[in-house]
Amino acid sequence: MNNQKNTSTSIENLILTPVINHSLILFKIMIGVLISFLAIRNIYFDFIHTAYINNTFYWPIWPQMAQHIPRSMFTYLNLGTLLFGIQIARQKWGAWSYFGYLICYLPLFTFNYTYYEDYQLLLITICVLLSLTSHQKAIKSAQIQSWEILIFKLLFSSILLWRVIAYLNIAWLSGTTLKTVLAPTVLKNLLFSPSNWIIIAISISLPIFECCLALIPWKFPKLIPGLWIGLLLYFYTNIFFDSEFQYSQMPLLLFALSTLFLPADYPKNFIKKITQLLDKIIQAGKSISTPSQNSTQQISPTVKTLIAVYVIIQLIIPLNVYTILPNHKWVITYPTFSWSMKKQRTVQYGYLTLVNPTTKETSQIKPPDGVLDTPLTLLIYAHQLRDSYKSQYGVTPEIYAHLRKSINNRPITPYTNPEIDLSKVNYQFGKSPSWILPQPENYFK
Amino acid sequence: MNLFNNSRSNGLPLYLFRIVFGVFLLLSSLSIIKKITLRHIMHTAEIYIPYFNFIPLPSYTASLILVCTLSLLSIFFMIGYRFKLASGLIFLISLYFFSLHMERFNNHYYLVLLILLLFTVSDAGKGLSLTKEKAPESIPSWQLNLLRFQCAIPYFFSGIQKLLDNDWRSGALMQHRLRNLTPHSLFSQIDSYTIGSIVAKLAITFDIAIGFLLINKKTRRWAAIPFLGFHLINHFIIFGKIAGRDSVGVFPHIAIASLIIFFDGDEISKGLSILKEKFNQFQLKLSNQVLTLQKSIFRPYIVSIILSIIILFPIYRYANYTQTYWKDLRIGTWNSHALKKTGFLDIYYQHNQTGEWILYIPRTNLFIPHYKALESPEGHYQLAQNLKSQMESTGLFVPYVGFISEIVINGSKVKKFQGILPWEELTEQLFETEFTKSIPETKQ
Description:
The complex is a heterodimer.
Chain A: H1 2-16, E1 18-20, H2 22-44, H3 47-53, H4 73-89, H5 94-110, H6 118-131, E2 143-145, H7 147-167, H8 170-173, H9 176-182, H10 196-219, H11 224-237, H12 244-247, H13 250-258, H14 266-287, H15 301-316, H16 320-323, E3 346-355, E4 362-365, H17 375-393, E5 398-407, E6 413-414
Antiparallel strand pairs in A: 1-2, 3-4, 3-5, 5-6
Helix pairs in contact in A: 2-4, 2-13, 4-5, 5-6, 7-10
Chain B: E1 8-9, H1 12-37, H2 42-45, H3 60-79, H4 83-100, H5 107-120, E2 139-140, H6 141-163, H7 166-170, H8 172-179, H9 193-215, H10 220-238, H11 251-262, H12 265-285, H13 298-312, H14 315-319, E3 341-350, E4 357-359, H15 368-371, H16 377-393, E5 400-409, E6 412-422, E7 435-436, E8 442-443
Parallel strand pairs in B: 4-8, 6-7
Antiparallel strand pairs in B: 1-2, 3-4, 3-5, 5-6
C-alpha cells in the first residue's frame, strides 16, 4: 500500500513539479518562426497558385472536406497560417493562435496526399500539444508543470524510435534500399564510392545512431549541441539525402524538440553568452575608437605611390571597352574587366565542323557554354580541338565555325565566317578577328 | 574620403569584414569541394582556356588538394591566424583558378580577387583574432578607404555603362528580365514597357550614386536601406529561382557584407550596444523565481491520453497484416527513407475521332504531384480517375484506358502493369496484383 502511494507520489512529482518556462517559450518562438517561414516560402515559390489553384491532379486521402473549399480560398488560408505563425512567435493570443493555425493549415494539409510530408504531420502534432500547455500572458515569473516539457521529450524519442523500427527490414539492413537512395549522388562520388560492405555498415549504423539520438539526451543532455552541430554539417553537405534538408523541415523540427532536453534556463545562459560576445566586440571597438591626439603617422612615399597606381589602374581599366573596343557590343575580344554587369542578353547557337583533309570525313561539335562568348575563346577552343584531333588521327583537321547570335532580342544573325579555317588562323592583338563577320548595318539602331 | 591622408582610424569595421569574408570564403570552398567530389564540374573542367599559355594546367587531384588548402586557409583568415600569409596564399590560389578559365570571366570573382589583394596588404588580422597578439590602437585610414573605394567602383562603372547603352536606358532589356517573373501570380502584370523603363532608370541612378552616398558620412545610413533592398531584390526576385534563374551568384552576399566597411568603428559599436541592450532587456524578463503551482491533474491526464494516441499511432502500419510494401503509404511512420519506391507510369487514352492512342503523362516529364501516384495502387487509381474527370470536363470520352507501369521497391522490380481496360473495370484492387494485356499502338 505504501509502495503504491510512493509510486503515485513520485509520478505526480515527475509530471507536476513546477519548472521555469524559458526553454518552452523559446521552443514556441522557434515553432512560430518556422510556421511563418513555411507560409512565406509558399508565397515566394507561388506554391499555393501552382499546387492548389491551378493544379489538376489531386488525391484526397482524408475526409474530402478540403475539396469543397473554393480554390481561391487557399491563398487566404496560407496568409492565415502566416498571421498565426507570427502570433505564435510573438507569444500572443495564447491557445487561440494554435487553434487558428490548425484551422488554416488542416485544409492545406488534407487537400492532396501528393504533398504529404512527415514534417507536416509532426508540425500539426506539436501545435495540438502546444495548445494544451500553459499560456501565461507575461513570461516574467511564469512557471509551468514539468509534464509540459516532458510530453515533447517523449514525442522526440518516440519519433526517432519509430524511425529505427522502420529501418528494421531486410531490404534496408542488407543495404539494398540505401544503394537505391544513394545511386544518383554518392555512388558517382570520386572520393567516396563505397563498396557494398560500407553501404551495409552505414545501413546498420544509421538506426543505431538514431536510437542513440533518441535515448542519450535523457541521460546526457549536454551532448545535444555537439550532436546537432554534427547533424547540421551532415545535412549541409547533403552527401546522403540531398533533398531532406532542402525540402523537408524534419531536421529543424527535431532540432527544436531536442532543445527541450537542455536545462530549462538555457535561454538565459545562451543570451548571457551572446551579450558577453557583443560586449567583447564593443570593448575591442572602444579601445581603438579614440586614437590619441598625435595619431597621425606619415604614409611613406612608396605606399602613397602604390596607392596612386592602384587607384589609377582601377579607374582606367574599365574604360577599355570605349577606347580600344568601340564595337564591343558586337565583338568582345576578351574579358573586359569593366564591371559591365548584366548589360547584354546574348543568345548564341551553332556548331563547329571538323573536316579530315585526307578522307574528307566531317564531324560536328557543339562547343560548351562560355566558349562562344568571345572570338578569342572560340579560337583557343578550336586550336585545342585541332591538337587533340591531330594526336588522335595524325592529321591536322580543317575547322569551320557556323555560329549565329542575337543580342538583346534582335534578329538572329550569322556571326562567324564559315569559310575561314580556324585551325590555320592566329589571334593578333589590336586587329579585328577575320573569322568574325562584320556587324550588320543598323543592327543596334 | 582622402586616400592619401595620414590619419588613423578605428579598425573594427575591417576586422569584422575580415571575419564575415572569411566565412564566405570557407563556405565557397566547401561547396566547390562538394561539386568536385560529386563530379558536377568535371565535364566543363576538362576544357581550359587560360589567359597565358605558360600557366600549368592542374590534374583532378591537384585541384582537389588546392581547394582543400583553400578551406583550411579560410579558417586561418577568419580567425586572424598568420593572416597576411593566409590571405596572400588564398589570393594566389584563387588567381590561379581564375587565370585558367578566360571563358568563364566573372565580375564577382574578379572583385573577390581585388578585395583579397587589399586584405593582404592591410592589418585586418590584428584585431578580433584568436591569436594572443594585442590589437593595435588604430589602423592607417587608407586601408579602410581603399577597400571602400574598391567596393564602390563596380557600381559606378556599371551604372555609366548602362547609361550609355540604348537597350538598357530605354528599359527594353529590363522589360525582358521582368517578363521571366510573369508566371508568378504576384508579378503577372509586370510585363510592361513603362515598368521596365522605370525600373531601368532607377537601377542606373542607384548604380551611379550609391558609391558616393555610402562613402559620405552624412548619407550613408539612409543609403544603406536602398543598398540592402537592391541586393535582396536582385538575389531573391530578379535573378532568383522564381525568375527561373539560379541566383546572381555570390555578389549580393559580398556586397551586403561590404556594408560593414562603409561605417566607422564608432557607429558599429553604437549599433552593437543597442543590440546588446535589447538582449539585456529580454534577459531581465526571464525570471528564475519558481513558485509553487496548484497541482491540477486534470490537464496532464487529458494530454497523456492524446500523447499516447500520437505515440502509438504508427502501430497501425505494423498491426495490419495484409499491408505490403506496395500498398504502404507510410503516413505517420516518420520515416520515408526506409522504403524507396521508384518506377514509371504511363497512361494512354484513345482519341474518340482518330482512334489513336495518346500518352497522357509522358514518363520523361513526371510533374511532382504525380510522383506519389507511382507509390501505391491507390495512387494509380486516383491518377486514372483524374484523367477520366479531365476528359469528361472537355467533352472527350473514350470507353477504354491503357496502362504501362513498372514499380521498383528497394531496388527490385516487383510489379508490372500493361494493358487496355474498360473504365468500368478500373478499381483500386486491380492494381494490387500484376496484370498484362495487349498493348495498344501509341502516339506521343
